[in-house]
C-alpha cells in the first residue's frame, strides 16, 4: 500500500513539470473538458482565422469538449490578456491554450493557472525560457519555427535583389519571442545574401504603426530596396507606404502569416513573399495536445516539451 502511494506521488510530480495535475484528467472524465483559447488581438485577421479554425474543430468533435474562445483589443494589451487568464482560473476550466501577447509578462498569470490545477499549452509565441526557469515552470510549446520561416522569406526577397542592396526590417513587439525570432531570421537571410540591413524598427504588429515607420524609412533611405515585415498586418502598412512614396515596383515587401488580405498583393506583385504558419490549424494543434494530455494525464514527450508545427514559404508573382 505504501509503495502504491509513493508511485502515485511520483506520477503527480512528473505531470506537474508540464503544468498539469492528476486531478485534471479525473475532472475531465466526469464531463466534457472545457478548453479556453486565449488569443492576441482579434483585430488581426490571423487570430480571427485561428479562432474560426478552433470553432470548426470543436463542431467536428462535438461531445468531446467545450471551447471557450476570447482575445484582446490590440497586440499590446497584456493587461487585458492577464485578466482573461484570471477569468479562466475563476471559471475553473480544464485547460488554457494561449498565444501570449508578451513572452515574459504573462508567465506569472500562467503560473497561477497551473497552481490552480489547470493545464496550460503555449501556442504561436513561445514563453521566455529564462523566465519559466526562474519560476521553476515548464509549459509545453506548440508552434512553428519563426526564425526558419522568416529566413525563407528573406532569402526569396534577396533572390530578387543584388549583393549590397539596402533593406530594412519592421518587427513586431520586441518583448515577444516570435518577433525576435522573425527578426533574427530576416537578418540571417539578408546576411547570407550580403544585403545591408540599414534599420530595424518596431511596427508593434499594427498596420497604422508600420505604415508610419515604413514611410519614415523610405524617406530616410532613398536607396532602400526592400522592407521585411514581421507579420502581414505590418506588410499591408508597408505596401501602402511604398505606394504613397511613388516607389511601387522599386521596393519589395516581405511579410509573415499569409492572411487572406495579402493574397491580392502577392498575386499582383505588391508583396514578394510571406510565410504561412497555417493560422486555421495553429490553435487546433494546441487543443489536440491538451485533449490528449487531459485524457492520459501524461505530459507531452517531445524534446523540451516542444511540438513543432509547419511553416511554409508563399511567394508572390514575379516582377
Describe the model:
This protein is α/β, with parallel strands linked by helices. The protein has 2 domains: 2-143 and 279-307, Rossmann fold, CATH 3.40.50; 146-276, Rossmann fold (3-Layer(aba) Sandwich), CATH 3.40.50.2300. It has 12 helices and 12 strands. It has helices at residues 2-16, 23-30, 45-60, 78-90, 107-115, 129-134, 146-159, 177-192, 207-220, 232-244, 263-267, 279-296; strands spanning 34-41, 66-72, 95-98, 119-123, 141-143, 166-171, 196-202, 224-229, 252-254, 273-276, 306-308, 312-315. The chain has a 6-stranded parallel sheet with strand order 2-1-3-4-5-11, with helices on both faces. α9 crosses α10. The longest helix is centred in the last third of the chain and has 18 residues, at 279-296. The chain is elongated, with a radius of gyration of 21 Å. It starts with a helix and ends with a strand. Mean pLDDT is 90; it is low at 1-29.
Second CATH tier, the architecture of the largest domain: 3-Layer(aba) Sandwich
The largest sheet, given as strand count, sense and whether it forms a barrel, is: 6 strands, parallel
**Hey, roughly how much beta strand do the residues contain?**
15-25%
What is the CATH T-level topology of the largest domain?
Rossmann fold
CATH class of the largest domain: Alpha Beta
Q: For the CA atoms, what is the radius of gyration?
A: 21 Å
Task: Give, in order, the helices and strands.
Answer: HHEHEHEHEHEHEHEHEHEHEHEE
Report the end-to-end length measured between terminal Cα atoms: 74 Å
- What count of structural domains? 2
Helix content: 40-55%
In order across it, which strands form the biggest sheet? 2-1-3-4-5-11
Give the rounded overall mean pLDDT.
90
Uncertain parts? 1-29
Helical stretch count?
Answer: 12
How many beta-strand segments? 12
| Name of the CATH superfamily of the largest domain | Response regulator
Amino acid at each position: 500500500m505504501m509503495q502504491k502511494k509513493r508511485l502515485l506521488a511520483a506520477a503527480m510530480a512528473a505531470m506537474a513539470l508540464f503544468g498539469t495535475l492528476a486531478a485534471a484528467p479525473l475532472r475531465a472524465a466526469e464531463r466534457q473538458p472545457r478548453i479556453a483559447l486565449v488569443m492576441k488581438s482579434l483585430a488581426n485577421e490571423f487570430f480571427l482565422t485561428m479562432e474560426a479554425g478552433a470553432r470548426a474543430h470543436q463542431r467536428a468533435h462535438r461531445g468531446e469538449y467545450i471551447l471557450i474562445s476570447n482575445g484582446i483589443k490590440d497586440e499590446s494589451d497584456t493587461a487585458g490578456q492577464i485578466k482573461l487568464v484570471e477569468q479562466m482560473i475563476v471559471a475553473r476550466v480544464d485547460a488554457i491554450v494561449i498565444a501570449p501577447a508578451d513572452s515574459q509578462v504573462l508567465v506569472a498569470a500562467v503560473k497561477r493557472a497551473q497552481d490552480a490545477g489547470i493545464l496550460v499549452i503555449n501556442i504561436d509565441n513561445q514563453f521566455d525560457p529564462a523566465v519559466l526557469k526562474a519560476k521553476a515552470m515548464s509549459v509545453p510549446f506548440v508552434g512553428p519555427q519563426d526564425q526558419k520561416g522568416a529566413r525563407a522569406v528573406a532569402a526569396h526577397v534577396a533572390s530578387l535583389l543584388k549583393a549590397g542592396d539596402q533593406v530594412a526590417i519592421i518587427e513586431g513587439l520586441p518583448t515577444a519571442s516570435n518577433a525576435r525570432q522573425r527578426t533574427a531570421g530576416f537578418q540571417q537571410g539578408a546576411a547570407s545574401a550580403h544585403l545591408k540591413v540599414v534599420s530595424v524598427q518596431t511596427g508593434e504588429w499594427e498596420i497604422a504603426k508600420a505604415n508610419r515607420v515604413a514611410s519614415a524609412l523610405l524617406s530616410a533611405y532613398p536607396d532602400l530596396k526592400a522592407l521585411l515585415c514581421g507579420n502581414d498586418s505590418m506588410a499591408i502598412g508597408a505596401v501602402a507606404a511604398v505606394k504613397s512614396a511613388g516607389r511601387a515596383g522599386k521596393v519589395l515587401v516581405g511579410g509573415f502569416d499569409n492572411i487572406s488580405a495579402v493574397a491580392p498583393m502577392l498575386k499582383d506583385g505588391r508583396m514578394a513573399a510571406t510565410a504561412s504558419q497555417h493560422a486555421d490549424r495553429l490553435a487546433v494543434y494546441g487543443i489536440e495536445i491538451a485533449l490528449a494530455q487531459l485524457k492520459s494525464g501524461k505530459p507531452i514527450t517531445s524534446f523540451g516539451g516542444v511540438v513543432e508545427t509547419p511553416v511554409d514559404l508563399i511567394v508572390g508573382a514575379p516582377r
